[in-house]
Amino acid sequence: MKNHLRSHVVSGCLAALLGSGATYVAVRDTPAESKPAEATPAQAPAPTGGEALQTVLFETTMNDVLGRAVMVREFERAPGTGGTPHRHPGSHIFGYVLEGTYEVQVNDGPLRRLVTGETFYEPPGALHAVSRNGSATEAVRYLVFSISDPTLPATVPE
Fold this sequence. Notes:
The chain is of the alpha+beta class.
C-alpha cells in the first residue's frame, strides 16, 4: 500500500512538472506586457566551449516524497557543441526538446536524434554517453526535469 501511494505521489509530481513545462512553452514568446510579473529565472554564466547555457526555471524540495529535490531547467547549446559523458547517480532525468535537434545516447542504447516535441529519459546512474546539438548551423533548446536524491552528487563525469 505504501509503495502504491508513493507511486501515485511521484506520478502526480511528474504530471505537475510536465504541465509546468508545457505552460512555459506556451507563454515564453508572449509579449512582456501581457505576462504576469515574476522573478527572473536564475541563469548560469555564458557558456564556453561545449558547455550549454543553463537557466533554472523552477526548484523545490518535496518533503513528503523522501525529500527529493525537483528542478526544471532550460538548456541551450550552440551549433555543433556537446557535453562530455556523465552520470546522474541519484536523479531521474526527463528531457523535452523545445527547438532544434538534440542528439542523445543513454547507456548502450541507440543514438537518438530528437527534434522539437520529442522526449528522452535517463534513469538514476545511467551513462549519458552522448549529449550534443545535432546541427552545425542552429542552436538547440531543451527542457530538463529532474527528480533527485540531494544526498548524492548531481553529476559525475565519466
